[in-house]
Design goal:
195 residues; alpha+beta; four-stranded antiparallel sheet; 39% helix
């Protein structure tokens, strides 16, 4: 059985998409980021929690504040990417549930305990982060997601105690030698078990 999605779109989003390590200096506009969000906001999360929050790092000054918190191998590409996004989980997402999950007015009460909220926010924001990367690709841009970072330092520098950073994503058009060779993938048989 084949997929319904056009093969060119499959290539754009998955098969030919790669993590970019260099970028051109072509800017990423606010309109492009808005279009990405307007697409990926429809990705499912548990009880429509939608806990992902995005901090866009544009200015040279903000990049200089971010760079020391990144693993050394991630600094240069972050300083030169047209746009950098810090993707974080909002641990107070439950405050929005009356709007986001209106058919169950008690939904907010299920997340009264902070540890419960943090676990759910981390899982569901990670789902949304994956959607975000696919959205960047759908916009014809390249994403360079990174987790090699001092996330506590990033939290203190850019967020607050109610937000947990998950990853940093460089965004733009790929530059020269942007790709490392593609790494192997596991086979279907290695991943899927039928019981």
């Amino acid at each position: 059985m084949s997929l319904v999605l056009d093969p060119a779109a499959q290539d754009l989003l998955f098969r030919e998409a790669r993590t970019a390590n260099t970028f051109t200096d072509e800017p990423v506009t606010d309109e492009q980021v808005q279009a990405i969000y307007d697409l990926v906001k429809y990705g499912p999360t548990s009880m429509n929690q939608s806990p992902l929050r995005v901090v866009l790092v544009r200015s040279p000054e903000a990049r200089e504040r971010l760079a020391p918190h990144l693993a050394e191998g991630n600094r240069a590409k972050t300083l030169t990417a047209p746009l950098v996004a810090i993707l974080a989980a909002d641990n107070e997402f439950h405050e929005e549930l009356p709007q986001l999950f209106p058919h169950f007015p008690q939904a907010k009460d299920l997340f009264a305990e902070r540890p419960v909220r943090e676990g759910s926010a981390a899982l569901n924001a990670a789902l949304q982060a994956a959607y975000f990367i696919i959205g960047v690709r759908a916009a014809g841009l390249a994403a360079g997601p990174m987790t090699g970072a001092d996330f506590e330092g990033i939290r203190k520098e850019f967020l607050d105690g109610d937000h947990t950073p998950l990853m940093v994503v460089n965004i733009g058009r790929p530059g020269p030698d942007a790709w490392f060779p593609r790494s192997p993938r596991l086979s279907y048989e290695q991943v899927v078990t039928t019981v």
